[in-house]
Write a structure and sequence with these properties.
Helices cover about 30% and strands about 30% of the residues. It contains 5 helices and 9 strands. It has helices at about 25-40, 55-65, 75-90, 100-105, 125-135; strands spanning about 1-5, 15, 45-50, 70, 95, 110-115, 140-150, 160-170, 175-180. The strands form 2 sheets. A 7-stranded mixed β-sheet has the order 5-4-3-6-7-9-8, covered by helices on one side.
């Protein structure tokens, strides 16, 4: 079972796509958001959830005060689950883009304060680096990027204007943090 940890939708359950996704565990989300909220105020934040799956990260951010979330998911069934979760939770300021992360990153548009990237383990380091570089123009001043990978994967290759902040392992999962440099 996947549920929202805290905030306005705390305790509410999320539907999960039937296969092909790996929702971020409740333990990891709780630790991740505790650290994120110590760094920044999520109230009014614009959030991008790449490789969204069930949308657990983006919906958690909305529950904790983010103003808007864009969910990017290439799998049509998973995108339908995202729509159902948004309706069920009552979140209206969401955009669900049923396309690949690569295609979405190549477009221009709004800037994001927080970017979550939780690609399937099959996505190579080079593919992920290409997506993160393409997103560089979509990062707000002081934006935070959080990348979740298998613990055997190395740290992502950050875009030029992003500096690595920290890495934390949770069993089979590693979470990497980066932030847009002040001079970035």
């Amino acid at each position: 079972m996947t549920r929202i940890v805290a905030g306005s939708a705390g305790g509410r359950r999320l539907k999960v796509p039937p296969k092909g996704t790996r929702p971020t565990s409740e333990r990891v989300r709780e630790a991740l958001f505790s650290s994120l909220e110590a760094m920044m105020d999520l109230d009014g934040a614009k959030v991008l959830d790449l490789y969204a799956g069930s949308g657990a990260l983006g919906f958690e951010a909305l529950s904790r005060g983010a103003e808007h979330a864009t969910f990017v998911e290439s799998d049509k069934r998973a995108a339908e689950v995202l729509k159902a979760n948004a309706r069920e939770l009552g979140f209206e300021d969401v955009l669900i883009a049923n396309r690949t992360a690569e295609a979405y990153a190549a477009t221009e548009g709004e800037k994001f304060d927080v970017v979550f990237a939780d690609p399937p383990y099959a996505v190579t380091d080079d593919e992920l680096a290409k997506v993160l570089r393409a997103l560089a123009g979509r990062l707000a001043e002081d934006a935070v990027l959080i990348v979740e990978r298998g613990s055997k994967s190395g740290e992502p290759e950050w875009p030029e204007q992003v500096e690595a902040l920290r890495a934390k392992r949770y069993g089979d999962t590693a979470v990497y943090w980066g932030q847009v440099r002040a001079d970035g």
